[in-house]
Automatic annotation (TrEMBL):
Pfam families: ABC_tran. InterPro entries: AAA+_ATPase, ABC_transporter-like_ATP-bd, ABC_transporter-like_CS, MacB-like_ATP-bd, P-loop_NTPase. It comes from Adhaeribacter terrigena. SUPFAM superfamilies: P-loop containing nucleoside triphosphate hydrolases. The keyword Iron does not apply. PROSITE patterns: ABC_TRANSPORTER_1, ABC_TRANSPORTER_2. This is ABC transporter ATP-binding protein. Belongs to the ABC transporter superfamily.
Length: 221
């Protein structure tokens, strides 16, 4: 098991009102599976992903990431856990525009102070894994949306995280590019990672090992 929620909930405070974004939830995420998280707008999908991604603490209950309870950590320790254990892929891709693909992929390793030669070798290997080695010196603007997203996946996996969290990774892509991205993510799950994908895209259901529905803050496994 790579991640779990134990009666974990999230309540946001907005002025005098409390918004229950996620009801107390039990959930287990295992190595080797690609999970889709689906549900209407405002149902709590991003909140669930943020809990798994160590971006927020649960209001109640516990979140365990690869053996560590997030509530036991301070903000700095949580950020470190995030860097070590989790790779993120977003709809908006978020590559840094003046940096080449290779430089973008090297960043997380530079942040964790990996040696220079190793950083470069691992970044090149990650780009090779998503079939982008031949364009590693291109700037993001010189790549198609699908190619940019593959670089972003390389950046997410370069730290060798156990858990890869994706928020609408195919929303900005055409059908062919979306298919390539999902195949890359499926491949990562086959390499014993856990991959969780939030999506509205029905086409992605074909790739899922498991589909989790979120409705009005309730997670329906
Ligand atoms: N920082 C916040 N402060 C207050 N309320 C919030 C905050 N973040 C989310 N919410 C509320 O929590 C609920 C769940 O939001 P969440 O973003 O998890 O939904 P979602 O399923 O990801 O929606 P979408 O598909 O539109 O992205 C919503 O009612 C939202 O308004």
């Amino acid at each position: 098991m790579i991640a779990s929620l134990e009666q974990a909930s999230k309540v946001y405070q907005s002025g005098d009102t409390e918004i229950v974004a996620l009801q107390p939830t039990d959930l287990e995420i295992r190595a080797g599976e690609l999970i889709l998280i689906i549900g209407p707008s405002g149902s709590g999908k991003t909140t669930l992903l943020s809990l798994l991604g160590c971006v927020i603490y649960p209001t109640q209950g516990r979140v365990n990431i690869n053996g560590t309870y997030t509530s036991a950590l301070n903000e700095n320790e949580l950020a470190k856990l995030r860097l070590q254990e989790i790779g993120f892929v977003f709809q908006s891709i978020n590559l840094i525009s003046p940096l080449t693909g290779l430089e973008n992929v090297m960043l997380p390793l530079q942040l964790s102070k990996t040696a220079k030669t190793e950083t470069r070798e691992r970044a090149e290997a990650a780009l090779t894994a998503v079939n982008m080695a031949d364009r590693q010196h291109f700037l993001p603007k010189e790549l198609s949306g699908g190619q940019q997203q593959r670089v972003a996946i390389a950046r997410a996996l370069v730290t060798n995280p156990e858990l890869i969290l994706c928020d609408e990774p195919t929303a900005a892509l055409d059908a062919t590019s979306a298919e390539v991205i999902m195949q890359e993510l499926k491949q990562l799950a086959r390499q014993n990672k856990a991959v969780a994908v939030v999506t509205h895209d029905k086409r992605l259901e074909a790739y899922a090992d498991r589909i989790i529905k979120v409705e009005n803050g309730f997670v329906i496994p």
